[in-house]
Amino acid sequence: QVLLVESGGGLVQPGGSLRLTCAASGTVLSRNNMGWYRQAPGNQRERVAYLSAGGSTHYVDSVKGRFTISRDNAKNTMYLQMNSLLPEDTAVYYCNRLPSLYPWGQGTQVTVSS
To answer: What is the pLDDT of residues 19-39, one digit of tens each?
Structure first.
């Protein structure tokens, strides 16, 4: 059974940084196309960053230049480095495979506020 556990969220001021971590068990992240998703209250869940098994990346325009997705194959862990955070980045952040989803983890709350 695949288990995804997100961590690293918190309360940060606008302009601050956070690094989110996605730890996986029951699967090998480097063999899958993976993404970071977020869901703000009242909004649909959206994918903000993508990392292919081959290492290519893609970002939605709203986070391009500010967020960086990466992977540590030895630790079977994926990261999302978030810099220059904005209040509109406030959401619960999740990691998951695509296009075929694994069961969702609990997510990690990111709140950007002064």
So the answer is: 999 999 999 999 999 999 999
Q: Quick check: 65 and 85 in contact, CB under 8 A?
A: no
Query: What is the per-residue pLDDT for 111?
Result: 98
Locate 61 and state its tokens: 């325009």
| Residue with tokens 């730890």, as numbered in its chain | 23
Tell me the mean pLDDT in the region 96-113: 96
Q: Closest by alpha carbon to 63, among 45, 50, 78?
A: 50
Q: What span, in angstroms and rounded, lies between the C-alpha atoms of 52 and 70? A: 10
Sorted by sequence, the CB contacts under 8 Å of residue 40 that are 6+ apart come out as 88, 90, 91, 92
Cα 103 to Cα 111: distance, rounded to the nearest angstrom? 24
Token representation of residue 91: 């959401």
